[in-house]
Design brief:
Length: 134
């Protein structure tokens, strides 16, 4: 198997079942068509924790709550010409929580409220129309 691919729970269970039947690691790897290292790591994890489940991943904690995310979207919908830095500073004033402009942009893009405002174009004059038609 390739790098960083986790084994399924069925394969892990099969590895442990064969290991409990006193089969060697090379036999288990060939039988299940996985690498010897994957077998070795699965057995090692089982010996240490008596469990084949993955540990829970912590990840980075969120700075915003769902209510704050909705407030960001609402502020943008109320005034579509408001920029992300303006929204971030207003959120900081009201909630006393510092959030980055990138966070605001991410939530606006997720809500399909990207910061694109149509440019006002000048009207065509008579001579411009004539040149286009000629």
């Amino acid at each position: 198997m390739g790098r960083n691919k986790n084994l399924t729970m069925e394969i892990r269970g099969a590895v442990i079942a064969l290991y409990n039947q006193h089969k060697n690691q090379r036999y288990i790897a060939e039988k299940l068509n996985i690498s010897k290292t994957a077998v070795q790591q699965t057995i090692k994890k089982f010996r240490n924790s008596n469990n084949i489940m993955d540990k829970s991943k912590s990840g980075r904690p969120r700075i915003t709550t769902q209510a704050l995310d909705q407030q960001i979207i609402l502020l943008s919908k109320r005034n579509r010409k408001r920029t992300a830095p303006e929204i971030a500073s207003e959120i900081e004033k009201t909630t006393l929580k510092k959030i980055s402009v990138t966070t605001v942009k991410r939530w606006l893009m997720e809500a399909n409220l990207g910061g694109l405002i149509a440019i006002r174009k000048p009207f065509l004059r008579r001579n411009s129309k004539a040149k286009r038609l000629a």
